[in-house]
User: What shape does this take?
Amino acid sequence: MLLFKEWSVDRRNVILSADKQIKAWRKANRRMKWSITAAEFEMSEPPLPLTPKDKADSFIGTVLSYGFGDDGYRNADSVLSAQKAWACARKSLFRKTWQCEYIDFNRTDDMKSKK
Assistant: This one.
C-alpha cells in the first residue's frame, strides 16, 4: 500500500497504468528468465477502479503482482515471490540498496506465517 500526503509528490504519476505495468512485467520476465508464460500474461484483467472510500483512505492506484512457486497449500510462495521481485529491483533500479536486517531470503522461517 502506498500512502502519500497531499503535499508530497504528484500522486497521479507514482503508479503506472495496468498496461504499462504488464509491459514492465514482460520485460522483467525476459530479462530475469522467470518463465512466466504468454498465456499467464493474457489472463491478466484490468484492475477494478478505486472506489470513493479507497480514495478517501488515501489509496492512489493498483499495483500488479505475480506469485511464484507454491507454498504447499496451492498458494504462491510469498517469500520466493518477494525474493524474485527484490532481485529484479536491485538489478534494474538501484546502484546502492538497503535491505532490512530482518529480511533474509535464505532464512525464511521467521518470514512465513505459521499455519
Q: What stands out?
A: Residues 11-92 form one domain. DSSP finds four helices and no strands in the chain.
